[in-house]
Amino acid sequence: MKFQTSTKLQIPRGTDDIMPGEVEQWQWIEQKAREICSLYDYHEIRTPMFEHTELFQRGVGEATDIVEKEMYTFTDRGNRQISLRPEGTAGVVRSFVEKKVFGQPQPTKWYYMGPMFRYENPQAGRRRQFHQFGVEAFGSPDPLLDAEVIALGMHYFQALGLKDVRVEVNTLGDVESRLQYREKLIAYFEKHIDELSAEAKSRLYKNPLRILDSKDERTKEIAAGAPSLHDHLNDDSRKHFDTVLRALDLLGVPYVVNHRLVRGLDYYTHTAFEYTVDIPGAQAGSIGGGGRYNGLIEQFGGPSMPGVGFGIGLERVLLALGAQQVETPSKAGLDCYLITMGEEAKLVGMKVLQTMRQAGLRAERDYLDRKMKAQFKAADRLQAKTVAILGEDELKQNQINVKQLATGEQVTIALDELVAYIKQLP
């Protein structure tokens, strides 16, 4: 394949370069996630960025926007249908089943972080390559675990300093309740079938609950009058949801019950929830969500075993932090910038630099043979705490000059005392 040299190479639409200065913010929100998960005894799992397409068709649901419109799918050299992961849960559940972790003492509590891929219309906080932090807890049907998962997400937002995050919560009932409700929904929407969008019509007999999540204005108006699932819950489903709400009350988690919340995935049963916060300029205020999925493990070939989890969009978290002007870490400055004068000092300076780095100090030097004035400017730009100057005269005396840039104070010390001197500075 030949490339024209005049062709300008650009980043694919819907993706971003995360540059130095921004990366530090990402590292910070990722580290906060790890810290919070550790408090709740969740352990990290890393799954492949691509899986067999069938995994998502079976797990996420064939009648979802993700599978129908948004997946990046291709045929590999072995003629296998492969998709870049559009979400994290399916791969984590696949691993849980494939590695037979269900045979170990339960519950199993995992978390993950990494890039996901969906062919969407790029906008603020919504990219074609985006990043999620998610947790999954397997092996317990206890509604208090639902409440713990929801509270963990809120704890994470609080640790970041994000304010006014709300939880919208709903119940989708168990399989029995869903089946009864499904028939009621189909009967209702059949009366309005000529007014429904083409997409809603295609979902009517596959998964009518998805019509409740329609973005088409007329379909939304019709869906507003649909029967409520809450009127068709059996006793077990109602008790499960009531316990979740009581636990959230006890934990002080602010929530509202949204009877129309169904989420965009087919695998949810019982609890479904969404974290929302006002983000100026973003299309919607959702920054994450999740729910319980009691049939997914069995659907993937494992035993009948429940699960619950969430996924949080990290781009949207950063957008919300920026909107609230929450101070996040920026690029760290240097402990020392080393200036050398003369060929021998320049060579010895490499050892001095390495000694500082091995002692845990952030240190840098000039590699462009610039004048001393330009090197001081470089030290300022790199936010160096000190500048160490090593010339031929200092080298003969086994000494080095050190200047604190904040105060202007300068001292001459023995070369082997440099690390200890810098480390004791405030």
UniProtKB/TrEMBL annotation:
Transmembrane stretches, start-end: none
Compartment list: Cytoplasm
InterPro entries: aa-tRNA-synth_II (IPR006195), aa-tRNA-synth_II/BPL/LPL (IPR045864), Anticodon-bd (IPR004154), Anticodon-bd_dom_sf (IPR036621), His-tRNA-ligase (IPR015807), HisRS-like_core (IPR041715), HisRS/HisZ (IPR004516), HisRS_anticodon (IPR033656)
Pfam families reported for this sequence: HGTP_anticodon, tRNA-synt_His
EC class name: ligase
E.C. designation(s): 6.1.1.21
UniProt keywords, alphabetically: Aminoacyl-tRNA synthetase, ATP-binding, Cytoplasm, Ligase, Nucleotide-binding, Protein biosynthesis
Gene Ontology biological-process annotations: histidyl-tRNA aminoacylation
Single Gene Ontology MF annotation: transferase activity
Reaction catalysed by this enzyme: tRNA(His) + L-histidine + ATP = L-histidyl-tRNA(His) + AMP + diphosphate + H(+)
Aminoacyl-transfer RNA synthetases class-II family profile domain boundaries: 1-329
CC terms in the record's Gene Ontology section: cytoplasm
Residue numbers binding L-histidine: 87-89, 118, 132, 136, 263, 267-268
Family as reported in the entry's similarity comment: Belongs to the class-II aminoacyl-tRNA synthetase family.
Oligomer status and interactors: Homodimer.
Record protein name field: Histidine--tRNA ligase
Organism expressing this protein natively: Laceyella tengchongensis
Gene name as annotated: hisS
